[in-house]
Amino acid sequence: MTPLKKTPIPDIALLKWRNIADLLAEVAGVPAASINMVEGDGLRVIGVSKGSGNPMREGLLIKTDEDSRSYCAAVIRAREKLVIEDARRSAFWKNSESVKAGFISYAGVPVFHPDGDIFGSICLLDRKVNEFKGPVLRLMEEFADIIMGHLSLIAKNCQLEETLKEVRTLQGLIPICANCKKIRDDKGFWQKVEVYLEEHSGARFTHGLCDACADKLYGKESWYKDFKNPGKEE
C-alpha cells in the first residue's frame, strides 16, 4: 500500500479538485459535477461543483456493491468511462436513485493511482438528455490525468516525510578529546568517533587506511613497496 492510500489528501489538493469540478460543470453546461474517492466498499464524494442544483455533497458515501445502481459505482467497477445519454431508456438505469432525482444523463471517467489501482472518478450529471459530445469527455480525461499527477506528488511527499523522520541529526557542542579524538557521550563515557556517530546518526562505517597512514605503518615493508610500485625493480 502506498503512503497516499492511508494518508489524508492535503487541503490544497482538495481545493484544486473542487475548482476542477466547478470548471467542468461550467464548460459542460450541467448542474452537477463531482470528484469521488474510493473508501472501503464505497465511494466518498470529496469535491463538488458549486450551485444549488447539485445533489452531491462533500462527504457523501456512495455504495459501490453489485446491487448498487449508481452511475459512479459502475465506473469504478468497470474501470472505464461511462456515458448515459438518457437513463430512462435503459431497463437497468431507469429505476435508479439518480433518475428518481431527475438526473437522467451522466458522464464519468475513472481516476487511477500512479501504481494503477483505482482512486475514484470524475462525474457529470444533467437533468436533460445529453450526449456529452465535443471536448467534454476529453477534458474530463485530461483532468483525471492531472489528478493522478497530484496523487503521484502527494505519494512522493509522504515517502519523503517518512524518510526524514528516520534521519537523526547531531546538534550542539560535541566534546571530543584533542589527542585521541574520542567523544564523550551524555553519560560521561568516552567512545570512538565511529561508535558515537553510529549511535546518534544512524550512519554505518567501513574501515580502511588513508595513504599517509598506510605509508607510516608499512612504508618500510618490501611487500608494501611492491604494492605501491608494481613492476619497479630496486
Q: Can you summarize this structure?
A:
It contains seven helices and eight strands; from the N terminus they run H-E-E-E-H-E-H-E-E-H-E-E-H-H-H.
Task: Describe the protein's architecture and organization.
This protein folds into two domains: 3-163, Beta-Lactamase, CATH 3.30.450; 183-228, no CATH class. It has helices spanning 11-28, 71-78, 97-100, 136-166, 193-201, 211-218, 222-228, and strands at residues 32-39, 42-48, 61-63, 82-84, 105-112, 118-126, 183-184, 190-191. Helix 1 (11-28) packs antiparallel against helix 4 (136-166). It is 36% helix and 18% strand. The termini are far apart. The mean pLDDT is 87. The strands form two sheets. It has a six-stranded antiparallel sheet with strand order 3-2-1-6-5-4, sandwiched between helices. Strands 7-8 form a two-stranded antiparallel sheet.
SSE ordering:
HEEEHEHEEHEEHHH
What Rg, in angstroms, do the CA atoms define? 32 Å
Specify the number of helices. 7
Principal-axis shape equals elongated
Biggest β-sheet: count, sense, barrel? Answer: 6 strands, antiparallel
- What CATH calls the topology of the largest domain is Beta-Lactamase
| Spatial order of the strands forming the largest sheet | 3-2-1-6-5-4
Low-confidence stretches: none
Write the CATH homologous superfamily of the largest domain. GAF domain
What is the highest CATH level, the class of the largest domain? Answer: Alpha Beta
